[in-house]
Amino acid sequence: MEDNSAVKAGGSESPDRGIRTYVLRTGRMTEGQKRAVDELGPRFCIPFNPERPLDFPEIFGNERPVICEIGFGMGLATWRIARERPDYNYLGIEVHTPGVGKLLAAIEEHGLSNIRILHHDAVEALERVVAPASLSGFHIFYPDPWPKKRHHKRRLMRPGIVELLTSRLKPGGYLYFVTDIEDYADATLELLARTAGLRNRYEAYAPRQTWRPETKFESRASNAGRSSFELWFERT
Q1: CA-CA distances (angstroms) from residue 169 to 67, 68, 139, 140, 192?
Q2: How many Å apart are CA 157 and CA 191, to the nearest integer?
Q3: pLDDT tens digits for 35-94?
Q4: Which of 84, 168, 194, 210 has the fewest Cβ atoms within 10 angstroms?
Q5: CATH number of 67's domain
Q6: What range does the domain containing 221 cover?
Q7: Is residue 139 situated within a structural domain?
Q8: Number of CB atoms found within 10 A of residue 152's CB
Q9: How many Å apart are CA 211 and CA 95, to the nearest integer?
């Protein structure tokens, strides 16, 4: 049987992809989140099946461009963007079950049909079930900064993973990254600028995109006096 890890775009897997970018937390789930996972999960959550790459027109029932959000947390920005930008479909990837339940409940509450969820590790999902040049954009908002220098190797934005993200974008597709940690922003700007196949839409940092709502982490950063840094790169 064919191994669909071959959907990776050329070459061998970079060794840094095997380093996890997250730690699974055992957060308490509310009854509402449990109900949402049980009752809405079968409708809006996509099973991870490495034998069958995702067919987005089949999954969403239309040909609209698909935007992937990596690590949507509790999904507040996810559902708001999906509601305000209905001409796009949204694939949210998250490992933490309470956040999945929270977003599922919001999908039901707001009557949204353009969101699907992969409850799985994002790097493995992109490698195994997302085909090259199949996405129109990535949203990466306030990923774990792993602030200690010895932990920087666990950051999401590192060479092997950025190459993977780039390979999954269609020509003209975008990568929209936001963080409140300046050294992470500087390192990511440098990394994206030297990644083959990407170009900066702006000279350096991007202006805030008016359609992006404030996230919980952004609010915390603002209260702590930290500014946000935004990057917008596009696939050539």
Answers
A1: 10, 10, 12, 14, 14
A2: 8
A3: 999 999 999 999 999 999 999 999 999 999 999 999 999 999 999 999 999 999 999 999
A4: 210
A5: 3.40.50.150
A6: 27-235
A7: yes
A8: 14
A9: 25
